[in-house]
Hints:
Blueprint: H1 16-30, H2 34-46, H3 50-54, E1 66-69, E2 80-83, H4 86-97, H5 122-130, H6 141-154, H7 159-165
Antiparallel strand pairs: 1-2
Helix pairs in contact: 2-4, 2-6
Amino acid sequence: LKKPHKEESRERFLSHAEIRKFWKEFQNFAGIDTRLMNLMKLMLATGQRAHDIRHMTVDQIGPDDVWTIPRHVSKNKMTHRVPLSKLAKNLITEAYQCHGKKKQAYIFNSNKIKSKKIADTTAPKAIRDHWEAFGMKKFAPHDLRRTFSTLATANGLDEAMADRIQN
């Protein structure tokens, strides 16, 4: 079969300056809500997939501050445990507080249908609609995950360990 389009190798990761700009200003510039912004920040802070973060529920966070991604959610169908830093815990807490008094199943729930998780197209659309006007080179949500890996290994983390952290 012929390929429907040319495949592109993805190597994009955000520079330190881009991370600072994205972290501090993107939410206000793009007018996106706290849950979505915190989802993207959590990708940078933990290196986890947007899919896994979107499926996060309160019962997956243990008292030991470890997030357990169940096998039915994980891409490789294996349970994955992610230790949460203070920053990661704060992002999760802030997103969950957006629920108000009525708590929902998903921490990163949809603005439109509160009982559903954020749609898989929401983060890509928010970035796609604003990256150019925001003054950044083109990037996608997965590039936030790649940024984690790139910077972690650049700062001395063994590549095999970075792969294990990212499941």
